[in-house]
Amino acid sequence: MLPKLPPGSLSTHEWRFGLVISSVHGVQHLFYRLFPPLIPILVIGLDSPLWQLGSLVSIYLFAGGLGQAPMGILVDKFDRQYILLPAIGLMSVGYLLFVLGSAVGPAFPAVELFGHSFSGTYQIMAGGMFVAGVGYSGIHPVGYPLISANISAEGKATVLGMWGSASKLGDTLAPLLIGGLILVVPWEWILVGVSLFGFVYASWLWLVFRASDIETRPPSALGEASAGGSSRASTGRSSRDSSGAAGGSWRANPRQFLYPMVTILLAFCFILFATNGLITFAPVFITDVYGYSLSVGDLVIPSESVANAYFSVLLLSGALSQLLVGAVAKRFDYRLLLIGLLALTTAGLAVLAVRQLTPVVLVAVFALVGACLFGINPIRDALISDITPPAYEGRTFGYFWTIVLLVSSGYPLVIGYLGDTVGIQASFQYLAAGTLVGIAGIALLYSPRLYRQRTSTAAETEPERQ
Length: 466
Fold this sequence. Notes:
- By secondary structure, this protein is mainly alpha-helical.
- It has helices spanning 12-32, 39-45, 50-66, 68-75, 81-104, 120-136, 139-150, 156-181, 187-211, 219-222, 224-227, 243-252, 258-289, 303-328, 334-354, 359-387, 393-408, 411-421, 428-443, 457-465, and strands at 111-113, 116-118, 294-296, 299-301.
- The strands form two sheets. Strands 1-2 form a two-stranded antiparallel ribbon. The protein has a two-stranded antiparallel sheet with strand order 3-4.
C-alpha cells in the first residue's frame, strides 16, 4: 500500500497519477541539468571562456521560454499527451545533436561575431541546445493543467510538492551520472545513453496513458462549461470558479488575477537570476574556489567529480524540501512561506560569496540554500494555480514561463562574464541580490491594492455575470 503524505488524503488514482506526472518533471530536469556538470570539462576541452559556455545554457533557456506560450495555448485546446510525448523526444534529439557537434564540428568553419570566434563544434552544440530547449518548453504548460485535471483541490499542494521534488531528483541524478560515469566513459557516451533513455521513457509514457484513466483532454473537449464540470477534472476545481465565470473575472477584478500575476512574474524574474546562476555554475564554483579531490586506493577522484557530489547535495536537499513544503503549504500563508525561504537563501548565498568554508560547513550551506531556494517552487505553483481562472491555466503557466525564461535566458551568460572578470566566488553576491529583490516583490502581495484573495466564489462571480 502506498504511504500518504501529511496532511493529504490522496486517492489511489491520485497517488498513481502523482507518481507518473512527477516522473515527467524529473526526466525534464535530468535533461535540463546535464550540461552544467560538463562545464569544468568543456572549459578545457573546447578552450572556451565561461561566458561562451554559459551562453549554451542561455540558448537552451531562450528556446525553452520561446516555446512555452504557444505550448500553453495548444494544451488548452488539444489532448495534452500529443504535446508531452514529442516534447520528450525533442529533448533527446537535441542532446544527440550536441554530441554530434563534438564528432563532426571540427570540419565546419569557425564564425567570427563581434570580435569573438565560435568554432564549428560550438555552433552545432548550440543548435542541439536550441532543439532540446524547444522540447523542454512543452513540459510545464502540460504538467500543471494535468495536475489540476486529475487531482482534487485538497491534494493539489501535495502533488505539486511531488512534482517539484521529482525535478530536483532529476537535477541530482544529472551531476551524479556525469561525475560517476566520467571516470569510466567519455562524456559523449553518457549523453547518448541519456538520450536513448528519453526515447524509451516517452514510449513507456504513451503506454501508460493508453492503459490508465488519466485525463489528458482539455476542459473544452470535456464540455465542462456546459456540463457543470461533471468529469474528474472538476474535482480539482471544486473550490474555484467555473471556466466561464473565471474567464470574465480576471478582467472584472484585476486584483484577483492580473495584478498579483504581474507581481509574481516580476519577482521571479529576479529570483531566477539566483536559481539559474547557482545551478549553472555551482560545479565550477566548487572546482575553482575549493578544488577538492580524493584518492581511494589507486583510484583518483578528480575535482570535477567531487564538485558534482557537492552539486548533488544542493539539488537533493531541494528535492526533500519540496516534498515537505508541498505537504504542509496549505496550513500557512503562501506569501509568508516564500519570504521566509527566500530570506534564508539570501543569507546562504551571501556566506558563499564572502567566506572560505570547511568541507563540512560547505555541505551544510549548500544543503540550506538548496532546500530553501527550491522549496519555494510548490508554493509558487500553488499560488499561481489558485489565482488562475481554470480555462486559462495552461496559457497562464505557458506565458509565465515564456517571460521568465526569456528574461532569465541571459543570466548564465551574465554570471559567466562576472566569473571571468570579478571571480566566480565574488559573482555569488549578485545572486544574493536577486533573491533579495524577489523578497521585496513577494512582500508587495500583502497590499490589498495589488492582491485580493477569493473568499466566496459564488458571491464574487454572481455580480460579475450581471
